[in-house]
Write a structure and sequence with these properties.
Elements (H helix, E strand, L loop, with lengths): L9 E5 L4 H11 L8 E6 L2 H12 L17 E5 L5 H8 L4 E4 L6 H6 L1 H21 L6 E7 L8 H19 L4 E7 L9 H10 L4 E3 L5 E3 L3 H14 L5 E4 L3 E3 H9 L6 E3 L11 E3 L1 H4 L2 E4 L2 E4 L4 H4 L12 E2 L7 H10 L4 H12 L1
Helix pairs in contact: 1-8, 3-5, 5-6, 7-9, 9-12
Length: about 350
């Protein structure tokens, strides 16, 4: 583990006011992997930026004055839209490392507004690569934060994320001085819009708790595990690799049952929703043959031979990596939720901290 991975680095986080961005900021500011010179939060939501700024400055009252001297602090904020090249290029110019967490990630929203997903998830990635290429910027590494839904995609969100991965991976050819890589992971416990906050709210309201099908399984990992994946990839990934955590998985009906925890709350099966998979897949069968094991992660080697070079799969996977195998049982699921303080009696304060 490189203790000085971020020492003196200027780090840009696009979409940095989301659930993942907040944990990234906390971990980067902790100094656990070195002291960054600057952390730049880039997003289009001025309200979220304002409240995050107030939170980190420990202000009692949220006043407009906190924005002044913003550009002189370690944690800085930039208003801009990853979909707009003219706002992306100037901020990428200031970075040594770029973590692209900006995304449209809600499956139904992307189905109703597929072009909006295209512009954010695909054009946003292209704008980052283009800025580096056109201006010959000395950016060391770009990490594209992707999703299991990009693997064998069946919905607009997954399709656009799959193409985002391809844009970043091919970026290694356009900008050979910059290392482009991706991370891909599944359902993040307690992230904004995920199912566990929904289950908590349903339980608090007396139910019912809704599960789409008794067969549905999901990988389960914490926001810190997601950040660990990004850090591990930054430290050890070769150009064009996609890093995937080896994470536990559970049936969603067991997650719901564990959270209900004996309360007089009904569990209702509602039927699978449009664009939803029964099982998550983080590495497809086709990708498995160019996958290698890197510690606690799988690394999918790039498809393009110009980027892959002489790297080859190591045989650690001979089929798809799916949430349907190696499932936790109910007790294992309950233990995992307790470990991450997500059982309902422990969750209220934790949820408030993550989602405010």
């Amino acid at each position: 583990m490189a203790e000085n991975l971020f020492e003196g680095k200027r780090i840009l986080i696009t979409g940095g006011t989301g659930s993942l961005g907040k944990v990234l900021i906390r971990r980067l500011l902790s100094g656990e992997r070195g002291d960054p010179a600057r952390i730049i939060v880039f997003s289009r939501d001025e309200a979220k930026q304002h409240f995050l700024r107030v939170e980190y400055e420990n202000k009692v009252a949220a006043t407009d004055e906190v924005i002044y001297r913003n550009f002189q602090r370690k944690l800085q904020f930039r208003i801009g839209d990853v979909r707009d090249y003219n706002s992306v290029a100037p901020v990428v110019r200031e970075a040594d490392l770029v973590i692209n967490a900006a995304a449209m990630k809600q499956v139904p929203t992307c189905e109703y507004y597929p072009y909006e997903a295209v512009v954010t998830n695909i054009v946003g990635a292209e704008n980052i690569v283009r800025a580096i290429q056109v201006h010959d910027l000395p950016v060391e590494t770009v990490v594209g934060v992707s999703t299991d839904k990009a693997c064998k995609p069946v919905n607009a969100m997954g399709m656009t994320k799959a193409l985002q991965e391809r844009v970043f991976i091919q970026g290694n050819m356009r900008c050979p001085q910059t290392r482009f890589l991706c991370t891909r992971y599944g359902n993040v416990l307690a992230s904004r819009g995920s199912v566990i906050p929904l289950f908590h709210e349903q339980i608090r309201n007396g139910g019912p708790v809704t599960v789409t099908t008794t067969d549905m399984t999901r990988f389960l990992l914490s926001l810190d595990h997601a950040v660990d994946t990004i850090f591990a990839a930054l430290e050890g990934a070769g150009p064009g690799e996609t890093w995937v955590p080896r994470a536990p998985s559970s049936r969603m009906v067991d997650v719901a049952t564990a959270l209900i925890d004996g309360r007089p709350v009904k569990l209702v099966i509602t039927g699978i929703r449009p664009g939803e998979k029964i099982h998550e897949i983080m590495v497809s069968e086709e990708e498995s043959y160019r996958t290698v094991t890197r510690g606690d992660w799988y690394a999918i080697l790039p498809m393009l031979p110009e980027v892959c070079g002489d790297r080859t799969g190591d045989g650690s996977l001979t089929g798809e990596y799916s949430s349907r195998v190696n499932l936790l049982d109910l007790e294992g699921t309950r233990a995992l939720l307790k470990k991450h303080r997500l059982m309902l009696e422990d969750a209220d304060q934790e949820q408030g901290e993550l989602l405010r």
